[in-house]
Amino acid sequence: MSSQGATLQNYNNELVKCLEDLREKREILNKERKFHSSLTWGTTQILREEKKKQDIQKHLHKLSEEVNSLAIAVFLPI
């Protein structure tokens, strides 16, 4: 019987070690997932800011054209 008890204890010890290893791997995966999701959020934020910048540049260009048209109209009345 003591040999069976020792065998059972060895299986139990191996099982505990496997569970600990799996927990460590899960923690590593969770950290990587959080890191990647933060990168995704950052990339999305950058793309939004770039789009906003393009819209502002287009608006600025239109306003510059209007100012030029007004300046021409003021200095060269028809």
The major beta sheet can be summarized as: none
| Parts with pLDDT < 50 across at least 5 consecutive residues | none
**Structural class based on helices, strands and sheet pairing:** mainly alpha
**What gap, in angstroms, lies between the N and C termini?**
114 Å
General shape: rod-shaped
Helix content: over 70%
Work out the strand percent. Answer: under 5%
As a whole number of angstroms, the C-alpha radius of gyration is 34 Å
The DSSP helix count reads 1
Could you tell me the number of beta strands? Answer: 0
How is this structure best described in words?
It is a single chain. The chain is mainly alpha-helical. The chain has 1 helix and no strands. The mean pLDDT is 88.
